[in-house]
Structure to design on (523 residues):
């Protein structure tokens, strides 16, 4: 792998940039791997990366039915935060946020992590109590967040109208170390690092079946032939139930469409991420100047990667009230992704009824922030059979009634 | 926009007048049931990429529940039917088989 640096750019500039190599390979699938990961999105690639980096397991294939990072990794609103309520969530999301801080250096790939601060608005009395409680919980968990009053909200984000008639801003939960990152770069950076370790990233290779023998996984059938493996990681977000079905088990998951949209680029006007959960909208400004907007999910099961227009309308209507200056912005693009929602709005990182099959799913509407932490924990789970970060996220927790209830932190917006 | 026929009012209804109620034909369990039965009833879902049977509430209309058969991959609606049924009626199942041969739903096909 050619290392990226200022020196490398200068050197290549002097010879018409002919020395750059492909960032990652495009190999034919081998007959057998130690580990197969289904899904070359952020979580799948991060899992492969940490299998190699932390555990020296590099005979790994990452299979992708579409193109690298073309699913939810390329469809989110790139928000990174860790202000969750429950201890197991705080542990994995904070691990993830801290890994984002050093990701560009670790991967030698600029993921443009921008810790600009994330503000969650309280617009009802209920939210005030909820976020104050979260701030206290975060203090005990060692996650730096704090409750701020409306005057400070206005100071941090001057374009906001805090005296809205329907839902005035009553304060907010402020996480100064939260922010955004370039989503594609996260997938590309991991892909490049995995490829460099000798792993095979195989795109346009859809898994059509999982083969087992005496309750143990033996491999997968794909559109590019059968591939054998000792361990199989399913990291396919919205298609988790679909793939689990191939291995013969069910998941407590429902797949729904979540939409986002971006405006035409405008001059810098907002240097933080704002989330307004009561009115269903969240917004930040990308480095290109576009306002990046996300809203609520559709209410019904859906695999179509597009959502209902009236949800866009609701989101934009809510944001216009909170940010009057965006009222005349034109929207450039809108898209949808399929998110895998669990009953308690927390993910599943778990062994499964099939020996050797591991599942990482259920991140629902907020998986992007968790990519490095999820990969770190999933790699440990797959390599050692257990991980302190994934213990509570077992898929059997629903039967035991041991929920990790994040409906306040994750029920609506991400 | 998704449009469903409400069998209670006999009208085509836009999704904005409806509220989705999740998977249909769940077997409900009560006191004395095992943890596994409760887990299955409360949390486990078919969540298929394809034929899906689901509950809908005509919130801004007659206020009654009805059931629908719909494809989650194409949003094609195969038909709607009254909520007072334990399994999808035969004519709807036949219609689905014509369009999606080999479909399954738990023990049904």
């Amino acid at each position: 792998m050619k290392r990226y640096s200022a020196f490398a750019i200068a050197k290549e500039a002097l010879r018409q940039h002919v020395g750059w190599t492909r960032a990652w390979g495009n190999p034919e699938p081998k007959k057998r791997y130690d580990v197969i990961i289904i899904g070359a999105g952020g979580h799948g690639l991060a899992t492969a990366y940490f299998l190699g980096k932390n555990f020296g397991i590099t005979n790994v294939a990452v299979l992708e039915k579409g193109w690298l990072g073309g699913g939810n990794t390329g469809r989110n609103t790139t928000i990174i935060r860790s202000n969750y309520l429950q201890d197991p969530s705080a542990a994995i999301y904070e691990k993830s946020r801290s890994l984002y801080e050093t990701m560009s250096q670790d991967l030698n790939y600029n993921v443009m992590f921008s810790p600009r601060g994330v503000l969650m608005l309280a617009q009802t009395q209920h939210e005030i109590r909820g976020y104050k409680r979260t701030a206290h919980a975060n203090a005990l968990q060692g996650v730096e967040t704090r409750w701020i009053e409306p005057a400070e909200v206005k100071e941090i984000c001057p374009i906001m109208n805090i005296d809205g008639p329907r839902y005035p801003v009553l304060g907010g939960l402020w996480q100064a170390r939260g922010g955004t990152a370039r989503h594609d770069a996260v997938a590309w950076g991991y892909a490049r690092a995995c490829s460099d370790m000798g792993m095979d990233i195989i795109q346009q290779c859809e898994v059509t079946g999982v083969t087992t023998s005496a309750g143990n996984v033996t491999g997968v059938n794909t559109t590019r032939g059968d591939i054998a493996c000792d361990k199989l990681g399913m990291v396919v977000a919205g298609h988790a139930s679909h793939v689990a079905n191939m291995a013969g088990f069910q998941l407590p998951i429902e797949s729904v469409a979540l939409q986002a949209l971006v405006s035409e680029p405008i001059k810098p006007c907002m240097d933080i991420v704002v989330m307004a959960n009561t009115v269903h909208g969240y917004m930040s400004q990308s480095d290109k100047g576009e306002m990046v907007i996300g809203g609520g999910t559709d209410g019904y099961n859906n695999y179509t990667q597009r959502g209902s227009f009236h949800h866009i309308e609701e989101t934009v209507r809510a944001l216009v009230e909170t940010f009057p200056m965006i009222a005349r912005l034109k929207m450039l693009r809108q898209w949808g992704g399929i998110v895998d929602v669990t009953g308690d709005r927390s993910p599943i990182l778990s062994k499964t009824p099939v020996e050797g099959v591991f599942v990482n799913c259920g991140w629902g509407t907020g998986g992007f922030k968790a990519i490095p932490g999820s990969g770190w924990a999933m790699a440990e789970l797959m390599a050692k059979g257990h991980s302190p970060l994934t213990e509570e996220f077992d898929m059997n927790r629903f039967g035991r009634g041991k929920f990790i209830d994040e409906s306040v932190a994750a029920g609506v917006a991400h | 926009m998704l449009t469903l026929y409400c069998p209670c009012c006999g009208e085509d209804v836009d999704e904005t007048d409806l509220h989705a109620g999740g998977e249909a034909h769940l077997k409900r369990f009560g006191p004395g049931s095992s943890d596994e039965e409760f887990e299955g009833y409360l949390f486990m879902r078919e969540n298929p990429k394809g034929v899906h049977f689901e509950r809908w509430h005509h919130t801004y209309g007659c206020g009654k529940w009805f059931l629908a058969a719909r494809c989650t991959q194409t949003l094609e609606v195969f038909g709607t039917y009254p909520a007072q049924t334990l399994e999808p009626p035969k004519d709807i199942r036949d219609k689905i088989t014509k369009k999606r041969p080999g479909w399954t739903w738990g023990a049904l096909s």
Notes: Chain A has two domains: 25-96+183-251+344-410, 118-181+255-342.
